Amino acid sequence: MKCTVLKEKLVDAVNRVMKAISSKTTMPILTGVKITSGSDGITLTGSNSDISIKSFIPLEEDGNENATINTPGQIVLPSRLFSELVRKLPNDDVHIEVDSRLITKIISGATEFSLNGLDPEEYPNLPIINENDVFKIRKDLLKDLVRQTVYAVAVTETRPVLTGVKWIIQDSRLSCVATDSHRLAQRSVAIEDAEESGPHTLVIPGPSLNELSKILDDDDEQMVDIVMTNNQILFKSHNVQFYSRLLDGNYPDTSRLIPSDSKTTIDLGTKALYHAIERASLLAKEERNNVVKLRAEGNQVEISSQSLELGRVYETLVTEKFEGDPLRISFSAKFMMDALSKVDAQNVRIHFAGPMRPIIIRPIGDENILMLILPIRTF
Amino acid sequence: MKCTVLKEKLVDAVNRVMKAISSKTTMPILTGVKITSGSDGITLTGSNSDISIKSFIPLEEDGNENATINTPGQIVLPSRLFSELVRKLPNDDVHIEVDSRLITKIISGATEFSLNGLDPEEYPNLPIINENDVFKIRKDLLKDLVRQTVYAVAVTETRPVLTGVKWIIQDSRLSCVATDSHRLAQRSVAIEDAEESGPHTLVIPGPSLNELSKILDDDDEQMVDIVMTNNQILFKSHNVQFYSRLLDGNYPDTSRLIPSDSKTTIDLGTKALYHAIERASLLAKEERNNVVKLRAEGNQVEISSQSLELGRVYETLVTEKFEGDPLRISFSAKFMMDALSKVDAQNVRIHFAGPMRPIIIRPIGDENILMLILPIRTF
């Protein structure tokens, strides 16, 4: 293998695939980044047991030359070292040359690295994805979907399926739901160009979705192609392919968790409520459970918390709408702040079905988003 | 105590004094911040066994009102909580009121905190400083002095006096020197308005100087008043007082460490050399000792390093001046990078007195700065 490539393109590509590479792996070859130079460009690959990322540098792009291939070939290089050294090379051009003993020369300006490469034949093949079930979604919408659901997945492995987000693709809609059994987040959106062989249900690991969000660049209006199989999902964006394994197991039916009735409904400014809870949490988090109290009566909503050692805090918000019974309820400050921080709307409507029943938070103006948190008994 | 103060002024003052407050202390009262409201303004104090910081908020400044005092008094509040909550208060004004049981109300907008204060009578007095020996130095020069010397102090306590920087004030000059016995940094500057009772030598703990640098704001042309006593040093800048204890013990005579002869002298671009060593260090740091090699002959300087596992790196720099014998020498990449990163000049002159004798680095154009590192035997 012998090629020359623009440093900035190489830096971008390495940064992306590094997201899939873990230093803790049972397969040493997977600590490396695989570099393949072919007739149309250079592909970098990183992989762990859950996700794999391919980042492609085309020979030419928008009329600019990115790379020249002298001899096609492939090599695997230690990823952490390679990503650091590429960033620190002195010149705009990087020349890469691999000899028959896998010794890889990386030359830029007056700098010459000579690295011991790893055997690319040992690098596992990525899953072969059959592109039968495909749909498209705008990149910014995909990022929003992930952000507004993935925070609610379980982090403990007690029920592994709950560490993922359930996606249901049906009738040109994608519905996402996540729950750790103390809270829940769901959102649905319309999708485009869906080629479906009937409805699909799949559970994507939460950490995969977090990494996906990080590698999607800011070109928000672009479409992402999503390919589904039984055990893998593939996201294809501009020059990037992101593979994730899917989770096995039956995801619980979450619709039964959501109360259909409401005893008290209040409307509040999203930010005002968030900041009031954040301040109350300053004392609440010094106690073990980070619980804040909410009392609502008339158009007054009082947020409070206390710490035996440190003191108390009270804050009164004025609600723009109050319906139903006066209310006293307690909940996790963290869970409420997590939910509110995902809301883009100026105001939220909160439904309380009773002091020990789930609290439902909805952004006013978007019926496709629903967040739920369970209260905590303190009164 | 009862007063009202601008939130932004309070945030600034708390951030400053927090630098002196440690959560690990044998005196619980010192985990708190002391607030004193007097007739001319509000003073915040933070302290640990090494340093104390006072930050003063005058009632008025530049024609703007900062604070109103209703009742003078003092209180000590848990510092971490107080600094977080002040930042998160909703309004520009903060009202503070302390009752006879030390319960402290902090009110801003619709938020009301009620904190359990600590007894200010238990707060230790700051050292009383006799202002006999005083001099002035420009703030930006003081920051440069600290930056260019403190990095070379010892971090282990084998010889406690080496964890400080030695300051000698004599004949209207301040000379600073630091060494951990593997490297050394020194710089001298002219000082102003010195009222000295003879020459002074004092050793200031390195960590104190680092904290001092952090709390000095960017108003670089201001003068800092420096007051010396036998066991304390006091830095007085605009509305801030910074006290540090001094280190006991005899600081070694470092002048004997500096070779007066030179067998090889080379001039190099500061940044080019820094980056070449940084790249070589990528492989060197994978080995235990992070050692890079330098070979110089004619006008060529080769920087190299290798890791048995990963590979090698070579880089050739062209020197603008080469005098003396050809040279092969090895040294710590970290020590050389630490030194070069403190140089503002475009080029450095490096003197080598032999493969196992100290290396002297000087910025070209500033004779008042000298850096020394010991080589490491590898050839």
Automatic annotation (TrEMBL), chains A, B:
<comment type="similarity">
    <text>Belongs to the beta sliding clamp family.</text>
</comment>
<dbReference type="InterPro" id="IPR022634">
    <property type="entry name" value="DNA_polIII_beta_N"/>
</dbReference>
<keyword id="KW-0808">Transferase</keyword>
<dbReference type="InterPro" id="IPR001001">
    <property type="entry name" value="DNA_polIII_beta"/>
</dbReference>
<dbReference type="Pfam" id="PF02767">
    <property type="entry name" value="DNA_pol3_beta_2"/>
</dbReference>
<feature type="domain" description="DNA polymerase III beta sliding clamp C-terminal">
    <location>
        <begin position="256"/>
        <end position="377"/>
    </location>
</feature>
<dbReference type="InterPro" id="IPR022637">
    <property type="entry name" value="DNA_polIII_beta_cen"/>
</dbReference>
<dbReference type="InterPro" id="IPR046938">
    <property type="entry name" value="DNA_clamp_sf"/>
</dbReference>
<comment type="function">
    <text>Confers DNA tethering and processivity to DNA polymerases and other proteins. Acts as a clamp, forming a ring around DNA (a reaction catalyzed by the clamp-loading complex) which diffuses in an ATP-independent manner freely and bidirectionally along dsDNA. Initially characterized for its ability to contact the catalytic subunit of DNA polymerase III (Pol III), a complex, multichain enzyme responsible for most of the replicative synthesis in bacteria; Pol III exhibits 3'-5' exonuclease proofreading activity.</text>
</comment>
<dbReference type="Pfam" id="PF02768">
    <property type="entry name" value="DNA_pol3_beta_3"/>
</dbReference>
<keyword id="KW-0235">DNA replication</keyword>
<dbReference type="Pfam" id="PF00712">
    <property type="entry name" value="DNA_pol3_beta"/>
</dbReference>
<feature type="domain" description="DNA polymerase III beta sliding clamp central">
    <location>
        <begin position="137"/>
        <end position="253"/>
    </location>
</feature>
<protein>
    <recommendedName>
        <fullName>Beta sliding clamp</fullName>
    </recommendedName>
</protein>
<comment type="subunit">
    <text>Forms a ring-shaped head-to-tail homodimer around DNA.</text>
</comment>
<dbReference type="GO" id="GO:0003887">
    <property type="term" value="F:DNA-directed DNA polymerase activity"/>
</dbReference>
<keyword id="KW-0963">Cytoplasm</keyword>
<dbReference type="InterPro" id="IPR022635">
    <property type="entry name" value="DNA_polIII_beta_C"/>
</dbReference>
<keyword id="KW-0238">DNA-binding</keyword>
<keyword id="KW-0239">DNA-directed DNA polymerase</keyword>
<keyword id="KW-0548">Nucleotidyltransferase</keyword>
<feature type="domain" description="DNA polymerase III beta sliding clamp N-terminal">
    <location>
        <begin position="1"/>
        <end position="127"/>
    </location>
</feature>
